[in-house]
Amino acid sequence: MGYITETLGNLLGQTAFAGLTYGNYIMIIVACFFLFLAIKKGYEPLLLVPIAFGMLLVNIYPDIMVHPEESTNGVGGLLHYFYILDEWSILPSLIFMGVGALTDFSPLIANPKSFLLGAAAQFGIYSAYFFAIMLGFNDKAAAAVSIIGGADGPTSIFLAGKLGQTDLLGPIAVAAYSYMALVPIIQPPIMKLFTTEKERKIKMDVLRPVSKIEKILFPIIVTIVVCMILPTTAPLVGMLMLGNLFRESGVVGQLAETASNALMYIVVILLGTSVGATTSAEAFLTMDTIKIVILGLIAFAIGTAAGVLFGKLMCHLSGGKINPLIGSAGVSAVPMAARVSQKVGAEADPSNFLLMHAMGPNVAGVIGTAVAAGTFMAIFGVN
User: What is the pTM of this model?
Assistant: First the structure.
């Protein structure tokens, strides 16, 4: 009888219930909420499902992220090894290559003025940097937090790793990906606040056709120009443009297919689950996390507003030929932000088609956010 009692006691002691804290239960609820948003509401499920599941796993079984030096047998947890690829900037760079292979840069090439809208939307990043300093973050932490304003998860992870802010990487990445997923909820009220119904109804001229040679030269020229000015952007901008060159060259269809599908999805699984696994209750339920979430929202809202307001300026200067709504797509959430521009424009006038026009600022925003990250790295002397 004593043997049976001891065995049952050992079994009960090995259950997760024995070691869970109130914080773990809170994080499990948060993980389930993210899964609800992803599965029921359809908010960026490719991102939120692996992130939420990683969050769920680490708060039930913390050893899944244990460092080898902290384990009893010298072997790290499964997701710890996935996370190392985040710290080494491998997964964020590969994500950029996949994005490049998936994205048509023609709208940006056809309308180079879109670069200005993409640049204007980065104002949210730089404003959030100073807010973060005011809230007590050091300069590198402030830079890592502020990049959330670009609504670009891979860039946020990349910069946090490069600046040595791994303690904040989990909250930063979760905030960035959450705001990417919530673009359809956050952006429309801001867009409507700063535009009139008449402006939202503006129909833009059809973009000019872009030749094949332009499509091929664009990624090469952008890589040379941007990386010569800011070499630290090479891992992100270089991989983005390489993926796009795969797509547009027409001679490496297999590579374009692999980068935009199989490889992209594998990387999303590894990156998403490892990022989610950084959100243990001890690391996530802190005052810094609350500050990061608030700062990220402020940065994203300011970036959206700055893009729309600059769009209004361009609308005025062009004699009413530019719909200000496309300025909101200057954040880096591709292609969700462009779709939101289309949706809000169509609500004002169902015959209005802004998607392709909005893709120009959207692609420019991806480049702009990478440049912002490279600028911070250059300022702090990080390679």
Answer: 0.89
